[in-house]
């Protein structure tokens, strides 16, 4: 896998868990992502994508009031300054088939299962940049082509009858990504974290871990 230069990327993280927001921020900065913005709820995340040119959004599924699927459906509907082709990567600890189908049918681009690692975050970014699927529009769906075989979660699903009998025409995705080159030097945190870091916070204080402490945890050898 090529090592992409991510310095021109603007990535949004939407998660109600302070530990996960902190962890994702450290990982993305370690990968040399140019700009990282954080929101602790769906409404805050949608406000950011309306006001700024976000390139990729990492969104947690389980959040109070409005969840990650609400974010995805709102983005895919467009309007109000929201770019409907925004790549959305769903953060989730749930990989059951019915949950995967529900998120796929909402228009998610990729899944990132918890616990996460540096390498898993980078692979999802790489996928939406280098291997993004074409979009389709039907009477009830707008989003990435759901007939997918290169992701185990999708490949394991039975193809729907409508996908087989009446495939929708493909829509090319607009070129909205900034210029992405190759890294001349490896970023500081390049090697995958062999022991993935879960979202479980420290038992004494869920919000007490600093970025320095999280970074030290990522670099710690198993």
Give me the secondary-structure topology.
Elements: E1 10-14, H1 18-30, E2 35-39, H2 42-51, E3 56-60, H3 68-77, E4 88-92, H4 97-106, E5 110-113, H5 118-130, E6 135-137, E7 142-144, H6 152-155, H7 161-165, E8 170-171, H8 211-219
Parallel strand pairs: 1-2, 1-3, 3-4, 4-5
Antiparallel strand pairs: 6-7, 6-8
Helix pairs in contact: 1-8, 2-3
List keywords for this structure.
three-stranded antiparallel beta sheet, 222 residues, single chain
- Give me the secondary-structure category: alpha/beta
**Biggest β-sheet: strands ordered side by side in the sheet:** 2-1-3-4-5
In helices, the fraction of residues equals: 25-40%
Report the average pLDDT across residues: 79
Number of contiguous helices: 8
End-to-end C-alpha gap: 24 Å
Number of distinct beta strands: 8
Main sheet overview: 5 strands, parallel
Q: What is the molecular shape?
A: globular
Low-confidence runs: 154-159, 161-166, 188-211
Rounded to an integer, what's the Rg over CA atoms? 17 Å
Beta-sheet strand percentage?
5-15%
Give your account of this protein's structure:
The protein is an alpha/beta fold and 222 residues long. It has 8 helices and 8 strands. The chain has helices at 18-30, 42-51, 68-77, 97-106, 118-130, 152-155, 161-165, 211-219, and strands at residues 10-14, 35-39, 56-60, 88-92, 110-113, 135-137, 142-144, 170-171. The chain has a 5-stranded parallel β-sheet with strand order 2-1-3-4-5, sandwiched between helices. A 3-stranded antiparallel β-sheet has the order 7-6-8, with no helix packed on it. Strand 1, helix 1 and strand 2 form a beta-alpha-beta unit.
């Amino acid at each position: 896998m090529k090592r992409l230069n991510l310095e021109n990327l603007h990535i949004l993280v939407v998660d109600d868990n302070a530990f996960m927001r902190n962890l994702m921020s450290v990982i993305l900065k370690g990968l040399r992502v140019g700009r990282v913005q954080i929101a602790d709820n769906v409404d805050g995340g949608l406000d950011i994508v309306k006001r700024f040119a976000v390139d990729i959004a990492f969104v947690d599924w389980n959040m109070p009031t409005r969840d990650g699927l609400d974010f995805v459906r709102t983005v895919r509907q467009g309007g109000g300054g929201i770019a409907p082709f925004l790549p959305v990567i769903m953060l989730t600890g749930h990989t059951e088939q019915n949950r995967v189908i529900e998120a796929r049918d909402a228009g998610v681009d990729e899944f990132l299962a918890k616990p996460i690692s540096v390498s898993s975050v980078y692979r999802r970014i790489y996928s939406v940049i280098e291997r993004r699927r074409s979009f389709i529009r039907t009477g009830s769906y707008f989003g990435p082509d759901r007939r997918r075989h290169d992701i185990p979660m999708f490949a394991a699903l039975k193809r729907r009858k409508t996908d087989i009998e009446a495939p929708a025409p493909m829509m090319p995705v607009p070129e909205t990504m900034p210029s992405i080159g190759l890294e001349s030097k490896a970023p500081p945190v390049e090697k995958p974290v062999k022991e993935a870091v879960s979202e479980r916070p420290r038992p004494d204080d869920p919000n007490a871990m600093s970025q320095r402490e999280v970074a030290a945890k990522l670099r710690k050898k198993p």
